[in-house]
Amino acid sequence: MQSQENFILRKATPADQAVIWEIVQQAILRRKNDGSSQWQDGYPNPDTIREDIENGFGYIFEIDGETAAYSALIFNNEPAYENIDGKWLSDNDFLVIHRVAVSDGFLGKGIASKLFLEIENFAKQQQVFSIKLDTNFDNLAMLKILEKLNYTYCGEVYFRGSARKAFEKLLR
């Protein structure tokens, strides 16, 4: 990849659904191959992606016009975050990041980190200065990214019956 890459974060449209699902399936297989239990129970699925797009939550990260990654971005709405075994850094408006998936064709190029930095810029443009997210205890790739980008471990939240590590980053 050239250093002159052009990347944008944009809202996904119904026309993007097939490529998003392909990327998410690649991520599901990677989680399995890494020995992670995350995303191994039928979630996320094509309906999840369709609902993300319909609700305006789905976002594509494009590099030089090619879809490199996908994520759901949701402002101020994650019921599971209301009950944390721990403490969030803030009680202000926040942006939730869910369903981060990078295309196999872009692995090993720091795309997830670039995606997170672009999401942070997006949040600030919306005057939101807190990002919250969660991940499985065994998603080592995501845990490494969160550490690298200075996300703070805040405790545990519970999704569909299992504990997940919760993180927050306050933006400046």
Automatic annotation (TrEMBL):
<protein>
    <submittedName>
        <fullName>GNAT family N-acetyltransferase</fullName>
    </submittedName>
</protein>
<dbReference type="GO" id="GO:0016747">
    <property type="term" value="F:acyltransferase activity, transferring groups other than amino-acyl groups"/>
</dbReference>
<dbReference type="InterPro" id="IPR016181">
    <property type="entry name" value="Acyl_CoA_acyltransferase"/>
</dbReference>
<dbReference type="Pfam" id="PF00583">
    <property type="entry name" value="Acetyltransf_1"/>
</dbReference>
<dbReference type="InterPro" id="IPR000182">
    <property type="entry name" value="GNAT_dom"/>
</dbReference>
<feature type="domain" description="N-acetyltransferase">
    <location>
        <begin position="7"/>
        <end position="172"/>
    </location>
</feature>
<keyword id="KW-0808">Transferase</keyword>
